[in-house]
Amino acid sequence: MKGWVQGVVVRAALTAAVLASMVANGAAHAQDRVAKPNDPETQTAVADYNAGNLGAALAEFRKAAERGSRLAEFNYAMMLLNGEGTAVNVDEGKKWLRKAADANMSHAQYVYGKMYDDGEFVGRDPVEAHRWFLKAAEQGHVQAELALANQFLDGRGTERDNKQAFVWYKKAAQGGDMTAQYVTGSFYERGGDGVDKNLNVARAYYAAAAAQGDPAARLKYQQLSAQLRDQKEVKPQ
């Protein structure tokens, strides 16, 4: 995979950016909660992009972006940053990405924050990253919730706050993120930081992560299941 982002992925009329540094294998699909394009030019651009007509898609996304379509702004930005249908143009790409983020598109806010968190195309600035992650997370963007939780846990871009970390891990876990499900389970397993220890709840979160293929979560689920079974079998004297 080349570059920090790998173009514009459109599935079921939803836009997605592939972020190369998101996970260990170097790729992750991050979908914004965006409705189907509601203007004909953006719809045509999506169709042309999917058909591989990148030059046409680029021009159509630009026209729609200039009319204020935030979906087009985001997709046009991604094409510029990746050099799809044109030469790479970082300055213009950042400008249009910021426009989409300012238009309150949660995925654009997340990607813009990730850019600052990673120091890609801009100087690394975890405080600025935190600001944009928070905007996206407050709209329910799962990956932003996870990124925000990590920042609170590490004290990166904000003061370290395990209680706030737990709040955002749990939100991301409830949104289906496997990593957040595991971490939320660990909070419930050990307790503390405002979290009441609850092995049954911990086991449920580990089970959710295990169902998505996390081997460590599967092991924790098995261990807690055995521990809870042993506790149940011990009769009080």
Could you describe the 3D structure shown?
This protein is mainly alpha-helical. It has a domain at 161-237. Helix content is 62%, strand content 7%. The chain has helices at 40-50, 54-66, 70-82, 90-102, 106-118, 126-137, 142-154, 162-174, 178-190, 199-211, 215-233; strands at residues 5-11, 14-19, 29-31. Helix 8 (162-174) crosses helix 9. The protein is elongated.
Helix content: 55-70%
Per DSSP, the total helix count is 11
Biggest pleated sheet? 3 strands, antiparallel
Q: What structural category do the secondary elements indicate?
A: mainly alpha
Assign an overall shape.
elongated
The quaternary structure here is single chain
Order of helices and strands: EEEHHHHHHHHHHH
Please report the total strand number as a whole number.
3
Q: Indicate the mean pLDDT.
A: 85
Instruction: Give the terminus-to-terminus CA distance.
Output: 63 Å
Strand proportion: 5-15%
Q: Give the radius of gyration.
A: 21 Å
Low-confidence parts lasting 5 or more residues at pLDDT below 50?
A: 1-35
Adjacency order of strands in the biggest sheet: 1-2-3
Notable characteristics:
237 residues, mainly alpha, 3-stranded antiparallel β-sheet, 62% helix, 7% strand, signal, ISR_Activator
Q: Briefly, what is this?
A:
By secondary structure, the protein is mainly alpha-helical. The protein is built from eleven helices and three strands, in the order βββααααααααααα.
